[in-house]
From TrEMBL:
UniProt xrefs under InterPro entries: Maltose/Cyclodextrin-bd, SBP, TAT_signal
GO BP annotations listed: maltodextrin transmembrane transport; maltose transport
Protein name: Maltodextrin-binding protein
Recorded family membership: Belongs to the bacterial solute-binding protein 1 family.
Length: 438
């Protein structure tokens, strides 16, 4: 710790009205002039405890850098220097960059954002600072239980919630009277719409050999009553009948039913989204950020024509939405622990979560913020997604998740390309047992 760090766990002393004024939001919840864009330093860097904050890049009305400026403007003791990483769509690069830096154990970055699936890995490696002594039971109880649980490793809180996201089904409500509840119903509706010439593509999703393929895999497999790993994190179920049937369906959307083009094998989020907002797709699996684009007349041909619903399920199964979102962590090797924790708690505070929700479209992990009148006025659509978020399904929880993900990406990509599903998943099971069994 430094001599300056005498503010353990105390959020920056900034009132709600002052915060919203600095952030460019009025106390009534209406977005005001972008005062956030021009913020002056309130103290020289030499007079403040300097810490670094590394975060994936997010897109919205504001940037993460501007959010950091709000904190720097709100007090005069800590100066946060922002280190921008690639966007979440390049999760492999973000992960590799963080691993390389945290493994050095030199204290940099002091605070970081992490995909929810990296929490176990970073904690298991001793890179993430345990946070229980800084977060009271009442404070912890203010988050969605599922997100808070995902921030723990072996019973210890090693991350603090930022935002929640999950997969969902976008559909053309001007073309279908109600969204499909089963995958079979989706196939039927998509086939009819393509045959009628109303759309070029029935169903757009992401089969690129990347992390998003695993997100889609979790949703298909879980909605058929299957799983990838058991609750113990060591038993492998990817070659079970439920998983084989689900991956076979993924292949069949392309080759049997022909409601998805072969191009989906190279699509991640944005390439799959573009034809949907261009008016050429009936159904799309994607994340919550897509809705605001759908409503943007400058970027969308389907303004006011889009509905959102839980993803379909197989007969006898239940809808499953892959839990997404990035969460906050503190470097266990930081030399500025107290300043880092103070900034961390500010980032995860109700006021800051509201700012991220209204300015970057990132859904808050606090129910009170989710249900607030301010959010309802600024992002009414977001509030309708609460049932989808609350029931989200986690990807396999293991400190070796990155290895598990890469093995699955290779196997599932091969399966949806050549159709030899059972053989590909048997190979994947063998590889995963070698990874998680050691």
């Amino acid at each position: 710790m430094t001599d300056n760090d005498d503010h353990v766990g105390k959020p920056a002393a900034v009132g709600r009205r002052q915060f919203l004024k600095v952030a460019g939001i009025t106390t009534g919840g209406v977005l005001a002039a972008p005062a956030i864009l021009k913020l002056a330093s309130v103290a020289s860097a030499a007079d403040r405890t300097n810490i670094t904050f590394a975060s994936a890049k997010f897109f919205g009305k504001r940037t993460v850098a501007e959010m950091v400026d709000v904190f720097n403007q709100s007090q005069s003791r800590i100066l946060v220097r922002y280190d921008e990483l690639p966007p979440p769509s390049a999760s492999t690069e973000v992960h590799q960059g963080l691993v390389q830096r945290l493994a050095k154990k030199d204290g940099s970055p002091d605070v970081f954002t992490q995909d929810v699936v990296w929490i176990a890995e970073f904690a298991g490696a001793g890179w993430a600072l345990p946070l229980d002594e800084y977060v009271t039971a009442d404070e912890a109880g203010a988050y969605f239980p599922g997100v808070l649980a995902a921030c723990k490793w072996q019973g210890k809180l090693t991350a603090l919630p930022w935002y929640v996201d999950s997969g969902m089904l976008y559909y053309r409500k001007d073309l279908v009277s109600s969204p499909p509840e089963t995958w079979e119903q989706l196939v039927a509706a998509a086939t009819d719409l393509v045959k009628a010439g109303k759309v070029k593509i029935g169903f757009s999703w992401q089969a690129k050999q990347a992390e998003v393929l695993i997100c889609d895999l979790v949703e298909f497999v879980t909605s058929n009553g299957g799983s990838i790993l058991g609750d113990d994190g060591k038993t492998v179920h990817i070659a079970d009948d439920a998983a084989v049937e689900a991956v076979q369906f993924m292949y069949d959307t392309i080759e049997k039913y022909k409601i998805s083009p072969p191009d989906v094998r190279s699509w991640d989020e944005e390439p799959s989204r573009t034809p949907f907002t261009g008016g050429d797709v009936a159904f799309l699996r994607n994340w919550s950020y897509v809705y605001s684009i759908c409503q943007d007349k400058a970027a969308s041909s389907v303004v006011d024509k889009v509905g959102v619903a839980p993803l379909p399920h197989f007969e006898g199964g239940k809808s499953a939405a892959c839990l997404g979102g990035y969460q906050y962590g503190v470097n266990a090797s930081t030399k500025n622990r107290d300043a880092s924790v103070e900034f961390l708690k500010w980032l995860s505070s109700p006021e800051t979560q509201l700012l991220f929700a209204t300015e970057l479209g990132l859904a808050p992990s606090r129910p009170a913020v989710f249900d607030s009148a301010e959010l309802g006025k600024a992002q009414p659509f977001m509030q309708t997604l609460k049932p989808v978020f609350v029931g989200a399904t986690a990807r396999p929880v293991t400190p070796k998740y990155s290895q598990v993900s890469l093995a699955l990406q290779s196997a599932v990509s091969k399966a949806v390309t050549n159709g030899n599903v059972a053989d590909a998943l048997k190979e994947a099971k063998t590889r995963l047992e070698g990874i998680v069994g050691t």
